[in-house]
UniProtKB/TrEMBL annotation:
GO terms for molecular function: endo-1,4-beta-xylanase activity. It comes from Potamilus streckersoni. Residues 204-506 form the GH10 domain. GO terms for biological process: polysaccharide catabolic process. Gene3D superfamilies: Galactose-binding domain-like, Glycosidases. Residues 1-22 form the signal peptide. Belongs to the glycosyl hydrolase 10 (cellulase F) family. The keyword Chloroplast does not apply. This is GH10 domain-containing protein.
């Protein structure tokens, strides 16, 4: 099996490499060995030997607007996938700022006279003196494109920067994505159970039935849970969770703002009761989140703190909540959405304070993996490269980071693109850390189309070897943050809609193992089943004779049973 797995990944890697090699760079003078083909008419440009690769880079200076940078007019086809890469280096920091923001962008001029500007990639914390990678993908609009222009923008006016090593390539659709995902599922998500069933000589083998019944998945399939509804709400909500999920995350009850709206008046009761309730029904729980980097999602009394006062409050928060749930949860999201907010760094004036936050949480509980958690990294690629670099920075600091949380909120009416999702997951996999899909939702009004879109997302996630869990961010329309169009269960009638039926079909039928056969077909046979918990049952003439619990994990299991009557 190990050889088969290696051969399969070698084939995939070679296939990807061949595709990349076959795709020509659509940019002219992409290595900036001259000033040719790059427009600097709005500011000044010159060549420099301070380069990322080759012999030269281009230096931009005399910039009076943040959109000013070298640009090149390009020809793009409509409704087509592209990947773009460029490297930039900031030559001085903005006065009074901890860091600056940079984008790799495309301007579209359409045949109807309209324009559109799209950010392909964003690096929000650019500091002087380091080459940064700006890379991402996009699908061009499905309308006639007259002309397009690619450029770097966003850096503050007056700042000088270098640009080098640029590329723009067309990405062919991977029409084999489903087969590739199914292969990964078959190899990575399953294990072999060797059945050895014998019987006394007088037993009629045709009357002996052998059942192999999976009772629980090892792979986490979970949901966000509203604590109040779980504890005191509609029983149908609780029953659906207990019946169809094996993991959960509290949607809001463990967040600082909800727990400690007034300093030192902390509500531990609600989240702890909810966690115990979930665990009493066999669910594992992710803890979300110790801190939230976006200013407005912190308690109002925290938002006014700075320096050591803020650090003291953070330490109190960590040493209060983390030990309270120690031994009850499987992971912590430490600093939520740090790509989209820098409250703790900016209010302490310490760019590396994020590392100390992880270090403190790890000291409070070193028994579980710690996660970052963010968006725009798989549902789109604007921050994928940034997130990879952010994760590597925390990982290399050795402060307890154990995994990558990926939110997976797809835009309104956006159906996941398996070709692009796999590329984004591959980039995050370069960190060497497991990926957890923490907050999946797809927003499509037609429930049948929504079902197809959820299936694409689930199949490509479950079919990627680095993904170690999938949690949807709620399922009931009455309590879903994005409403009916993202739901699996609809309205007061609590109807499992087409999207919900598709989800349950995948989890409980296609990705679920059940085998039944008479002993007369042979007692020595193998079941290649999904990893998890099983009951092996033996009945004779309709009477239950034996039952054995089996855990099918990363190693094959042999089950030996003898039938007597």
């Amino acid at each position: 099996m190990a050889a088969l797995k290696m051969d399969f990944y070698v084939i995939l890697a070679l296939h990807a490499a061949l595709l990349a090699a076959a795709a020509p760079n659509l940019l002219q003078n992409p290595d900036f060995e001259s000033l040719n083909n790059w427009d600097c008419s709005t500011h000044h440009c010159e060549l420099t030997t301070d380069k990322h690769s080759g012999q030269h880079a281009i230096k931009s200076f005399g910039r009076t607007q943040n959109w000013m940078g070298p640009s090149q007019w390009i020809t793009l086809k409509q409704n087509t996938r592209y990947e773009a890469v460029a490297f930039a280096k900031l030559l001085q920091n903005a006065q009074g700022k901890m860091f600056s923001k940079a984008y790799l962008s495309v301007e579209f001029d359409f045949n109807d006279g309209s324009k559109n500007y799209v950010h392909i990639a964003e690096q929000p914390t650019v500091k002087q003196g380091h080459w940064i990678e700006l890379s991402g993908d996009l699908i061009t609009p499905n309308k006639g494109i007259k002309a397009s222009r690619i450029y770097i923008e966003g850096l503050d006016p007056g700042l000088d920067f270098l640009m080098d090593s640029a590329s723009l390539t067309e990405l062919p659709e991977n029409t084999h994505w489903k087969a590739e995902a199914d292969n990964v599922i078959n190899i990575n998500r399953k294990q072999t159970m060797h059945l050895r069933v014998t019987a006394d000589g007088h037993i009629d083998a045709s009357q002996v039935q052998i059942e192999v019944i999976q009772t629980k998945h090892a792979f986490p399939f979970g949901t966000a849970v509203a604590a109040d509804l779980l504890l005191t709400g509609d029983a149908r909500y609780r029953d659906f969770i207990y019946q169809h999920f094996n993991w959960a995350v509290l949607e809001n009850a463990l967040k600082w703002q909800q727990m400690e709206g007034q300093r030192h008046h902390i509500d531990y009761d609600k989240p702890l009761r909810a966690i115990h309730e979930l665990k009493s029904h066999g669910l594992k729980v992710r803890a979300h989140c110790v801190l939230w980097s976006v200013d407005k999602f912190n308690p109002s009394w925290v938002q006014g703190l700075h320096g050591n006062d803020l650090k003291q409050a953070v330490t109190e928060r960590i040493n209060g909540v983390v030990p309270k749930v120690k031994g009850l949860v499987e992971a912590w999201d430490v600093n939520n959405e740090n790509l989209h907010g820098w409250f703790f760094q900016q209010h302490t004036g310490d760019f590396d304070y994020i590392l100390d936050i992880y270090r403190q949480v790890h000291l409070a509980d070193n028994t579980i993996p710690l996660f970052a958690n963010d968006y725009d990294v798989v549902a789109s690629s604007i921050m994928t490269t940034t997130y990879r670099d952010h994760i590597l920075r925390i990982k290399n600091a050795n402060v307890g980071l154990g995994g990558i949380g990926v939110q997976g909120h797809f835009g309104q009416g956006v159906c996941p693109d398996p070709t692009l999702i796999k590329r984004r997951l591959d980039k995050l996999s370069e960190t060497g850390l497991p990926i957890f899909i923490t907050e999946l939702d797809v927003v499509v009004s037609d429930e049948n189309h929504r079902a197809d879109c959820y299936e694409k997302a689930l199949r490509v996630f479950f079919g990627h070897p680095s993904v170690q869990g999938i949690l949807i961010w709620g399922f009931w329309s009455n309590r879903h943050w994005r409403g009916e169009d993202a739901s699996l269960v609809t309205g007061n009638e609590f109807r499992t809609n087409a999207a919900g039926q598709r989800y349950l079909h995948l989890i409980e039928q296609e990705w679920h193992t059940y085998t039944k056969r008479p002993l007369s077909q042979g007692g020595n046979f193998d079941v290649h089943g999904f990893k998890g918990e099983y009951q092996v049952k033996i009945t004779y003439q309709g009477r239950a004779l034996k039952e054995q619990h089996v855990t099918l994990g990363d190693s094959p299991q042999t089950v030996s049973l003898h039938v007597t009557a």
